[in-house]
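Comment thread on ticket #2218

A.B. wrote:
> Attaching the input chain for the structure job we discussed in standup.
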Amino acid sequence: MATCAPDPIPAWDAVVAAPGFALGIACSATAVTGIAFLEPRPPEPPRTPLAALVARQLTAWLADARWRFDLPLAPCGTPFQRRVWQQIASIPLGETRSYGQLAQALGSAPRAVGGACGANPLPLIVPCHRVLAAHGGLGGFNRARGGFLLDVKRWLLAHEARCRA
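C.D. wrote:
> Ran it. Output below, let me know if you need it in another format.
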């Protein structure tokens, strides 16, 4: 497991502009370690060949959500978080699951699943936006309960619905 040492003010290896938001990319020398949703801002050119590859693949996904990522990943998380992320990664494009459904599959509690979703360091690649509250409510997203990040979640779900159709 990777050693976790989060940088409070990350220096992104690249920033990709998206509709209404941006994506910050963090990489080690050999793998993607994080992607973050940022307020809208201009793109920043990749600092490394790996960051350039990630930026190209994120741009491809933003154009067509059917894009399949093929990247070396090194997410930092607990064994439980990694189990949750594996479950999330198995949710098909255009489909959603509830926190409760994932919790039942994992023998856990919905709140614990929500915590793992919020800690997901690789959103889009591990599509935590596909996890909803009971009865289809948006729930939280990326540890937010409202505002900008829920608008991003709405856009991501609508984007996938358009691409699936």
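A.B. wrote:
> Thanks. Noting for the ticket: The CA atoms of residues 49 and 83 lie 30 Å apart.
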